[in-house]
Amino acid sequence: MESEEALKYYLDEVKDSQNDINNIEEDIHIPNEAEQATDFLQNAGLTDLSNLYQEGKEITENVIKDSVRQRNLTEKQAQTIRSRVRTLNKTLRSRQPRRKQRQDIRDVSWNVETSSTGTRSRSATPDSLDSLDVLNDELTSDEDQQLNSLNPFSLDSQQPGVKTKIKWTNSEPWQHRKYRGDRGDVAHSGSENVILKGYQVLTENGTLPRSTRERSGSDPTTEIHLQPLKNRHSAEISRNKLTNLHTQLSRSHTSISSKNNTSSKIYITNTETNESEAVSFEGLLKENEIEDKTSISQKFENEGVCIDQLTDSEYQYLKPLLYMELVAIFDQYKIVKSYLKRKASKNKGGNVFGVNLSTLVMRDMPRPTDNSMIPEIFQTVIKELNVRCIQEDGILRIAGQKQKLETLYNEIETKFYNNRKDVESLLNQATVHELTGILKKLLRDLPDPVFTMELFEMFYKTSLITNTEDKVKALNLLVLMLPIEHRNTYRLLLEFFLNVVNNEKHNRMNLHNVAMITAPSLFPPRLLLPKDNNKLILKHLSKEDLTKQIKDAAVCCCIVETMLKAGDKLWSVPDYLAEQAREAQKSAQIRRDLSKDKDKRIRSGKTKLARSSTQYESGNKNLPRIKRDFFI
Amino acid sequence: MASRKKTLLKVIILGDSSVGKTSLMNQYVNRKFSNQYKATIGADFLTKELTVDDRTVTMQIWDTAGQERFQSLGVAFYRGADCCVLVFDVTAPNTFKSLDSWRDEFLIQASPREPENFPFVLLGNKVDLEPRAISAKRAQQWCQSKNNIPYFETSAKEGLNVEQAFLAIAKNALAQQNSTVDLYNEFPDQIKLTNTQKTSNNGDSCAC
């Protein structure tokens, strides 16, 4: 009889597991690079940038610099943003080949070319107008992109006549004029090659003659714009280069400029040398990374703020930062975030088992005993374990008796919310192994695992990080990113596990054992398999699948082990991130206050002036800026 | 008979955690015992060559994690097994009580062609330890109720009875492989007994 019951139980279990498999909802749409990049920007709280992209506008270096400065981001974070923005810009360019005056790589190169021929034939054609056109061309395109970064005079001084002129001058006439210029030098430049060489030399040095001409130009605007233009020009040059090169360029820019603040001119020459010796370039990067790491880890270990010490609103601002940091680490190890998006599973309709942590917390609400955001059932079981039997031999490893456990599950399921005393006395009488059995079942039955469907994949992928320190850092960031119910529950669990490990002498459960036993509860195996395999699992399994599964199990075990070793470190926010978050929260507060004022001012029509005047003082990072409130 | 090709026998060890599955396997294959308390990850197997009735066979012994569930792993290694070894700890009554579940789980997961005739072997491990909670008599009774499963009392620590137990396991596995060829008359074929009224009931409920 007994065995028949057990058999029935097993059949149910098998059915359940099959249902589990079918219930896993997956969105197998794998987004392209651009979508991934937008996804990143949105997650990182840089919606202003992703909005620009969605409006079909390129994101210029200036905009990036702006938002980096505003948020007080580190160079490493800025780098991560840049690499994503580059993808977006590239997509944009391929999507809309020269529309209107929008920035296009070809337009830019034409302009430079004309200006170069212009210098040559300066005496022949009075080309002050040429340079002006180039100038305005850049201005208008920047205007498009930068929206808010207008200076007060550009609106007033830019004559509508000039603007229309630009629209008339497309690439055709330039080419024509170029030929004319060349015709004067026919004796020197017979072939295309010669012209090209000359063009290159001139662009490198081209800044100087151009700026002098700008000054001598008849239009007063040129002089006013001289300063910003110079910066733009250097940015333009870098953009002229192939995107491939460009990547290296800005990368090496950080590696070098972070060490010694060299001028932009020097960094350009440096790129060229790096380009030829890829190895040394990589070496430089690595050196830099190592420096970075040590400095971070020192901060990380010595200081750090416990996550509990941050207010809710500060945490709101911390989250995008955490995400950015994490992606930076993943980038470093060339780990690609998988975009197998799984929707958070719904509750299975039980009372206690198979119910999401957030729902459990909500159910506790009518009689809240504390505000820890940890479901009471977890608290009760773990407390019981901690108090009574932490020294029991083989705690967590040894299984309870199945039939007894079944009845316990049922009692808890039906009585936990209406007959708490009964349940408590039951738990009081339960053996250690039954209690751990309950705990493990609670964890395994969670529709949304402790590490959440959203972050699960990322947790798993930290195993690809080879450097332990970085791995701990990534896990630290991930843990901080968990929703509060999950984070706090996991914290309670981890503390309990560590307590078990600390009693190793008595219970023989060392760190490795605890990690191995708890890993499958924290990383449900059903989530580690691709959907196809899941369907096949009950019919056929190849040897490769088996090895993969064993490998997965080992990997999960290692991750849990790393987290156990990291212990308390997991809950502390690196100081610089906490600082950034606080800063962002404060300035957002000020901005919000100001925007209330602004609303009033809009009605009185003074906004334009106010906006542009703040723009000029942007050097001061603490200054409130009246831009869109990007976080909200 | 001896001219036959090498035979590979797949043997699976099941039982609750910390009953000594890994230790038994290690004792048999490597003749070593470690006092280390170490949980098994997923599953692992060792192979050992032995001669059974003038025949060389390679026994592939699969050690499994006793944790209730590395569940998804289960199916993969239960499949194609020639014999299933159930292990319990004679000092821990709970491990004896879960034997039924382990046996049923195996039958469901591996779904052998003739579940009622599939060879199991029961090992009561840790007989060197005191106090004993499960008597030999009780274990034997259980075995009889399950179509006369062979029962051995072993100690992986002392190496007691381990060799004999695994030899019987190999013989049972071989018999399963050659169940159509009646070559091994001398082999006590308690598994093939026709008195299967009770177990066939079990088998039926398995299949549904």
UniProtKB/TrEMBL annotation, chain A:
SUPFAM superfamilies: GTPase activation domain, GAP (SSF48350). GO terms for biological process: regulation of actin filament polymerization; regulation of small GTPase mediated signal transduction; signal transduction. Residues 90-130, 588-621 are annotated as: Disordered. Residues 114-125 have a biased composition (Low complexity). Residues 610-621 have a biased composition (Polar residues). InterPro entries: Rho_GTPase_activation_prot, RhoGAP_dom. Residues 355-571 form the Rho-GAP domain. This is Rho-GAP domain-containing protein. The lineage of its organism: Eukaryota, Metazoa, Ecdysozoa, Arthropoda, Hexapoda.
TrEMBL record, chain B:
The keyword Cell membrane does not apply. GO terms for cellular component: late endosome membrane; lysosome; phagocytic vesicle. Keywords: GTP-binding, Lipoprotein, Nucleotide-binding, Prenylation. GO terms for molecular function: GTP binding; GTPase activity. InterPro entries: P-loop_NTPase (IPR027417), Small_GTP-bd (IPR005225), Small_GTPase (IPR001806). It is found in: Late endosome membrane. Pfam families: Ras. GO terms for biological process: endosome to lysosome transport; phagosome-lysosome fusion. Belongs to the small GTPase superfamily. Rab family. This is Uncharacterized protein. It comes from Psylliodes chrysocephalus.
